[in-house]
Write a structure and sequence with these properties.
This protein has 19 helices and 23 strands. The protein is an alpha+beta fold and 579 residues long.
């Protein structure tokens, strides 16, 4: 027992108390003992009990050793004597205050009393001393346990990869682990006792506005607080870190009182930058896709995509409706495309496309397509085949409407054909005209030199009529092949048809029957007669080719007035009088 602990318990007792070691040395004394022995505390402390008693040192030790062995109270009846005075003491009583163990000396409490025994008080004192001793041992054990816990906690906090800050219930910092010191720029010594929001200033990365520090909310409500993904920590040196964190209350074991707050956070700057860059890339990609889609859908071409694995269209441009009359949702699989190809082109087109696709070859093909309204148009299909691991997996392409281009090509071809025919006809007509001129001249001479004979004259007249018909046909051929300037004038179409009757008849085979149904009182038409003749002969030649050399060709004329109702049903027509 320490002297302080002894005095704490015995200082104010009415009976004298001495704390003595097993060898008789006085370690402490209370006030009552000082009064009884008429000495000051500093005089008694350190002196030997044998100096106060009539016992020899050996006799005193024998008494004390008996107490340490039995650990029971031992009465000590003696008279204390001092060199200069005699102090009357009835008796002393010893009681073991701490056990004697090997290598250690025991401590004994000596009670000085006079008159009636106060054994009960003494026993109560010893029981209280034992109780306090047990409490002191528990306190020391608790302190050691607390020290070990604090040491373990410190090791744990230093080992955590996240930053950790701990505050008290007033929001003042208590500790920071090394990661928190690194991110905030504050050391634990500098930060302790400062408000959390001073060491931990945070703003919104997007708006740059200050974010309310979580410490107030956690300490006031006891709730765990999580900050947003845009939280930015401003370090002491101005460095900015994107962080993810949470703040939670520290409670008593029973949860009734909030003792402080623990704030855990970590640096997510790199992930935040990657996430923001990904967002920017997504926005750019969406803008690019929209621009591409708008560009594709605003052009005359129709974009499409076909998945060869699924055997389905995965995209069809919305302008396919205007081109073919079929909306995008009706373009589903291979058949929905193939069935709309003109029957005369279908087999060759599908066979070619399938062969090229299986070989992974991009290709372009032109074919006729039948619209939803039955009208036939020409399409050019430009196809790109995408190959992965040696296998074609996707097709992408564009439909182009080349109907007008095809018609222009056909018109040019016909024009070139007619031009060639005209040049040939002109050359033949010139030569033939020369021959007919010679024939007609010789007929005139022959008619003058032969005798007047009815039979001979009839033959000469027949030859002359034939030569005149040949001359007329020659003039028509020359008119057809002429290179005169364009000249529009009012003409009667019936008369032009009559004038080229021979050319029409000669242009078809003998197995083609030509019929005319020409209306009377036909209106005059402002047109170039030569152009009309060219057009008529072109139509006749096309009809002959369509008839394959056998059949009936009907040429008909009539007056017609187109009204507004007709024009509404036939876009492109203009109201008026027509022949």
């Amino acid at each position: 027992m320490q002297a302080k602990a002894f005095l704490l318990l015995a200082e104010h007792l009415p009976e004298g108390m001495l704390l003595v070691s097993a060898d008789g040395k006085i370690q402490a004394c209370n006030r009552a003992a000082c009064r009884q022995l008429k000495q000051k505390p500093e005089q008694l402390a350190g002196s030997n009990l044998g100096e106060l008693s009539g016992l020899t040192h050996e006799e005193l030790l024998a008494k004390l050793k008996s107490c340490t062995r039995s650990r029971l109270p031992i009465p000590l009846a003696f008279k204390a004597s001092l060199p200069e005075s005699i102090i009357e003491i009835d008796s002393c009583e010893g009681f073991l205050a701490s056990p004697a163990e090997d290598g250690k000396l025991a401590q004994i409490i000596i009670r000085l009393h006079s008159g009636a025994s106060q054994r009960g008080v003494f026993l109560a004192l010893n029981q209280e001393i034992d109780k306090q001793r047990r409490l002191l041992r528990k306190l020391e054990a608790s302190r050691e346990q607390l020290r070990l816990s604090e040491e373990n906690l410190s090791i744990t906090l230093r080992s955590i990869g996240d930053a950790v800050m701990v505050s008290d219930k007033q929001g003042m910092l208590v500790s920071l682990n090394p990661v928190a010191e690194e991110l905030t720029g504050w050391s634990t010594q500098e930060a302790c006792g400062l408000p959390v929001k001073t060491v931990f200033p945070i703003i919104d990365a997007s708006t740059r506005e200050v974010i309310e520090n979580p410490v107030e909310k956690v300490l006031s409500t006891g709730e765990t607080v999580y900050l947003s993904n845009h939280t930015t920590l401003i370090a002491r040196d101005g460095t900015e870190y994107q962080i993810a964190d949470s703040a939670a209350p520290i409670r008593e074991r029973n949860g009734s009182e909030i003792l402080g707050m623990v704030l855990v956070f970590h640096d997510v700057t790199e992930q935040y930058q990657l996430r923001e860059e990904n967002k920017r890339s997504q926005i750019k990609l969406q803008k690019s896709e929209k621009l591409y889609r708008d560009l594709v859908e605003s052009t005359a071409a129709v974009a499409w995509e076909f998945d060869l694995t699924l055997q389905r269209f995965t995209y069809m441009g919305p302008n396919i409706t205007g081109l073919t009359g079929y909306p995008p949702e009706q373009w589903t699989d291979f058949e929905s495309w193939a069935d709309r190809i003109h029957p005369d082109d279908r087999a060759s087109v599908t066979s070619f496309c399938q062969r090229e696709t299986e070989q992974g070859a991009s290709h372009t093909i032109e074919y006729r397509n039948v619209r939803a309204d039955g009208r036939v148009i020409w399409l050019r299909d430009e196809v790109t085949v995408i190959v992965e691991h040696g296998m074609p997996v996707m097709m992408r392409g564009y439909f182009f409407d080349i109907t007008e281009h095809r018609q222009t090509e056909e018109a040019l071809r016909r024009s070139q054909k007619m031009d060639a025919v005209g040049k040939m006809a002109g050359g033949i007509a010139h030569d033939f005209n020369n021959i007919i001129s010679i024939i007609q001249g010789n007929l005139d001479l022959l008619e003058q030199n032969i005798p007047s004979d009815d039979k001979t004259k009839k033959r000469i007249d027949s030859i002359k009529r034939s030569s005149e018909r040949a001359a007329k046909l020659t003039r028509q051929l020359l008119s057809f092949s002429r290179q005169d300037a364009y000249s529009v004038k009012p003409v009667n179409i019936n008369r032009i048809i009559d004038s080229i009757d021979n050319l029409i008849t000669q242009s078809v085979t003998s197995q083609v029957e030509v019929e005319y149904h020409l209306a009377e009182n036909l209106w005059q038409t402002d047109i170039d007669p030569g152009d009309l003749e060219d057009a008529m002969l072109n139509l006749v030649l096309n009809a002959r080719d369509a008839l394959e050399g056998r059949g009936r060709l009907t040429i008909e004329t009539h007056n017609s007035t187109l009204d507004e109702a007709y024009c509404l049903l036939n876009p492109g027509a203009t109201a008026g009088d027509y022949v």
